[in-house]
Every structure is written in C-alpha cells, then in structure tokens.
Write a structure and sequence with these properties.
Layout lengths: L1 E6 L4 H13 L3 E4 L2 H4 L5 H13 L5 E6 L3 H7 L7 E3 L3 H9 L5 E5 L5 H13 L7 H17 L6
Length: 156
C-alpha cells in the first residue's frame, strides 16, 4: 500500500516514529515534508496538500499529525472525496476504515504517546472497508457531499 505522511511543527517528531514503523510493516511511505519547502505555512496547508494527493489517487492512504489531530482532520475533510478522522485509540482507527472507508488518519502528538500512535497507525493501515451494513451509509455520505458541492443556489 502506498501511504503519504506529513505533520505540522507539533507533529514532526511523532511523524518520524510512525514513518519508520509503517515502513517496517512493509508499506511504501512517502514523507511529503510540506513545511520543509513552505516554511511560512501551517497545518491547514499541510493537510490540504496531502488530501489533494489522496483525491488525485497518488496515495491510497494518508496519515497527518499535529498537536491534537483535529485541525488536520477538519482541513482534510474539506477536500471533496477525501474522508479523514482523528483517532486516539485502536478501535476508532479500525472503524475509521472498516465502517467509513476513510483514507486519512489524523493523530495528535499532544494526545497520544509514541507507542500508542504506532499501534493506532498500524490498525488503520491494516484495516479495510468491510462494506456490509456500512456501505449504504458510506454511499449516503457521498450523496450528501455531492449535493453540497452542486448546490450553488443557497438563496431561497
């Protein structure tokens, strides 16, 4: 699996730990290192860059790290067709993929420790969309997203 990873300044140390761990699991991981090239930017741009590349199918999954994981998730979810969630435990990371078919996991370096972040990331990467009862709900999310995208007349 081809995975993109990136972080803001708060998440840079944890990013290196997760990057090494995911590589050890045998996955192809690319550190996008957005802030290395654009030093005046912050987490919204980091998340947007990774999410666009997920949307464009350059990567199958992505992992974003900031202080809480929340801002990264909010920004990544703004990109149509990209689904992200902040997870602080293994169960949530599995459900993010199994139930919601999300491509992006976000983590908070101030919320989860290094070992927890490794097993949370591993759970997300190893999980697959199980469809079943979740499939109609996932399709409904896509329908609503498309309605929002195509609703250019908000005036009544």
């Amino acid at each position: 699996m081809k995975i993109a990873i990136d972080a803001d300044r708060n998440g840079s140390n944890l990013k290196e730990i997760i990057l090494t761990h995911i590589k050890e699991l045998g996955h192809e991981v690319e550190d996008l290192a957005y802030l290395q090239f654009y030093k005046d930017k912050d987490y919204p741009d980091v998340a947007y860059n990774l999410a666009k590349r997920i949307r464009n199918k350059e990567f199958e999954r992505g992992i974003l790290i900031c202080g809480t994981g929340l801002g990264m998730a909010i920004m990544a979810n703004k990109v149509p067709g990209v689904y992200a969630g902040a997870c602080n435990d293994v169960y949530a990371a599995e459900r993010l993929q199994k139930s919601n078919n999300a491509q992006v996991l976000t983590l908070g370096s101030k919320v989860v420790g290094e070992e927890s972040a490794k097993i949370i990331s591993e759970a997300f990467v190893r999980s697959g969309f199980q469809k079943g009862r979740s499939l109609p709900k996932f399709f409904r999310i896509q329908e609503i997203e498309n309605e929002i995208i195509h609703d250019t007349n908000d005036e009544k």
